């Protein structure tokens, strides 16, 4: 039950006693939410349960809760729910981003500072957590990497369907120079091309010409690993990609190694297409 003030000699009803028992056992009344939500004082001692297919936030502000108050937070929706410090301070040794069926609770050490204890076992070192799933369209799709407490990031891009033959590039943090790339391209069943290491404006995921991604063929996939994504070092990106040429059914495979001159933690990933996309998906995972 929500936190209440009882008076001397007050007689509790059966329903109140049942609710107190549920709260003591880690349950309590549940407040269902389907959009981003800011906690209020009445949430003390309750469960806030998010159920949204899109990414949401639960914001924590100061001067609402007393020291010792707790709020349980659950996410049962497909969209990632991120516990966000508003005017209060929120500390955790785990992640503040809750994937579907993740949960945790806020413990207020003071009226303005809380600890978030994530109860998801997948957050252990080496665990892989889905951060976001994005349906791709148009010629540019930007994904914000919020509350990035992950050492590495892994992205899967698949099912791309451009409205005309297209090539793809990928940009992190909006940088337009200092992308050093070496690519091995295997196509036409026996051709091998090694590109020189040059300074590019973005990371090339596919090649132009006859081996570019064709319209109407969605049998394509790229797997990208971003090393040390949250560290202030040059970013290393390893990519394996495959796609089919619709005119001759040959499979093109690209293996790419990239290092960037930028050292900032990755906060944004943008996929750029030379043609308009009518379909495609990007799934982003975090690795502890």
Summarize the structure.
By secondary structure, the protein is mainly beta. It is 4% helix and 49% strand.
Q: Could you characterize what this model shows?
A:
This protein is mostly beta strands and 288 residues long. It folds into 2 domains: 14-123, Jelly Rolls (Sandwich); 128-287, Jelly Rolls. The protein is 4% helix and 49% strand. It has 1 helix and 22 strands. The strands form 3 sheets. Strands 11, 12, 13, 14, 15, 16, 17, 18, 19, 20, 21 and 22 form a 12-stranded antiparallel sheet that branches. Strands 1-3-5-9-10-7 form a 6-stranded mixed sheet, with no helix packed on it. The radius of gyration is 24 Å and the shape is elongated. The two termini are 35 Å apart. The model is unreliable at 188-194 (pLDDT under 50).
Q: SSE layout and pairings?
A:
Layout: H1 14-24, E1 30-33, E2 37-38, E3 47-50, E4 56-60, E5 70-75, E6 81-85, E7 89-91, E8 97-98, E9 102-108, E10 113-118, E11 128-135, E12 138-144, E13 152-162, E14 168-172, E15 179-187, E16 191-194, E17 198-200, E18 203-204, E19 220-227, E20 236-244, E21 251-260, E22 268-287
Parallel strand pairs: 1-3, 2-4, 3-5, 4-6, 7-10
Antiparallel strand pairs: 5-9, 6-8, 9-10, 11-22, 12-22, 13-19, 13-22, 14-18, 14-22, 15-16, 15-17, 15-21, 19-20, 20-21
Write a concise keyword list for the protein shown above.
single chain, Jelly Rolls, six-stranded mixed sheet, 288 residues, mainly beta, twelve-stranded antiparallel sheet, 2 domains
């Amino acid at each position: 039950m929500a936190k209440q003030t009882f008076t001397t000699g007050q007689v509790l009803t059966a329903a109140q006693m049942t609710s107190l028992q549920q709260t003591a056992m880690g349950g309590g009344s549940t407040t269902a939410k389907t959009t981003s939500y800011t906690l209020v004082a009445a949430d003390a001692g309750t469960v806030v349960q998010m159920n949204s297919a899109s990414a949401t936030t639960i914001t924590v502000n100061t001067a609402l809760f007393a020291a010792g108050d707790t709020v349980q937070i659950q996410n049962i929706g497909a969209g990632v729910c991120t516990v966000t410090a508003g005017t209060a301070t929120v500390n955790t040794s785990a992640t503040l981003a809750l994937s579907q069926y993740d949960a945790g609770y806020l413990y207020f050490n003071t009226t303005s500072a809380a600890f978030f204890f994530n109860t998801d076992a997948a957050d252990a070192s080496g665990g892989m957590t889905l951060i976001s799933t994005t349906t791709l369209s148009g010629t540019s799709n930007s994904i914000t990497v919020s509350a990035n407490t992950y050492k590495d990031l892994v992205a899967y891009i698949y099912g791309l369907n451009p409205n005309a033959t297209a090539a793809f590039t990928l940009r992190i943090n909006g940088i337009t120079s200092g992308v050093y790339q070496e690519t091995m391209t295997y196509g036409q069943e026996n051709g091998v091309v090694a590109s020189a290491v040059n300074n590019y404006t973005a990371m090339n995921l596919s090649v132009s010409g006859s081996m570019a991604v064709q319209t109407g063929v969605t049998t394509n996939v790229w797997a990208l690993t971003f090393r040390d994504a949250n560290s202030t070092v040059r970013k290393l990106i390893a990519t394996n990609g495959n796609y089919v040429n619709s005119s001759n059914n040959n499979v093109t495979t690209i293996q790419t190694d990239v290092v960037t001159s930028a050292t900032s933690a990755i906060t944004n990933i943008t996929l750029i297409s030379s043609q308009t996309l009518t379909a495609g998906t990007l799934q982003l995972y975090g690795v502890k």
